Amino acid sequence: MSRLLLQTACLLGILPGALLAQRYEISPLVSYPRWGREGLGSLNESNNKDTDTQIRGRRGYGLRLTWNTPGYYGHEVGYILSDATVRTDIVTTQGRTTITTRYQDEVKVQQVFYNFLMYMMPAGERIRPFLAVGLQAHQYGAPRFPDKDVRQTRNYGANYGGGLKFKVIEHFNLRLDFRHYIGGKPYDLKFADQRLAGGGLISQFEGSAGFSITF
To answer: In three state form, how does the secondary structure of the chain look?
Structure first.
């Protein structure tokens, strides 16, 4: 009996430390952003189309910082720097001839976010699926087009998604994440429907993979 009491006491003494050791995470990541097909608007003075300007994602890198509660919840902030291509169709008229010229430029998109995490398995499990909801801000770099002044913009929105964390060894996890971001359209361009002045909304889908160090 005395041995059992001693083992129980040792376990109770170690357990809070083990839980505390898994409370914080630092997670580098590689992301693959994909913006929706919604047009960003037009740089043309007339006959503008909403789809004249569009953005296409490439690859991003970032970092997540996570605080997990002892139970089923967590809070996470992060930063991702992505490469993207912005293309636009510029329409010019020469006499009776209309010429459409396509330009494109590479831009950097900076993103900061907060997510509230809801785990489906308790702390300490080898596999922990989770759901996530949160808020984000995107800063879109300014594309350079001939004779067109396009400035960088900062746009805000909300996101939801989920992911999986796989415990490989103590203090080291692999993780996969998916997010759907909904936010304001960048660059404040012109739209065929003047009621869309200010841009409207654009979707961004993002898959990411990385690892996390827990402590």
So the answer is: CHHHHHHHHHHHHHHHHHHHHCCEEEEEEEEEEEECCCCCEECCCCCCCCCCEEEEEEEEEEEEEEEECCCCEEEEEEEEEEEEEEEEEEEEEECCEEEEEEEEEEEEEEEEEEEEEEECCCCCCCEEEEEEEEEEEEEECCCCECCECCCCEEEEEEEEEEEEEEEEECCEEEEEEEEEEEEECCCCCECCCHHHCCCCEEEEEEEEEEEEEEC
Residue 101 C-beta-side C-alpha neighbours within 13 Å = 11
Can you give the pLDDT of all 215 residues of the chain as single tens digits? 445 334 434 433 444 444 444 699 999 999 999 998 888 999 998 778 889 999 999 999 999 999 999 889 999 999 999 999 999 999 988 778 888 999 999 999 999 999 999 999 998 899 999 999 999 999 999 999 998 999 999 999 999 999 999 999 999 999 999 999 999 999 999 887 766 666 689 999 999 999 999 99
Q: How many Cα atoms occupy the beta-carbon half-sphere of 125 within 13 Å?
A: 14
Class of the CATH domain delimited by 25-214:
mainly beta
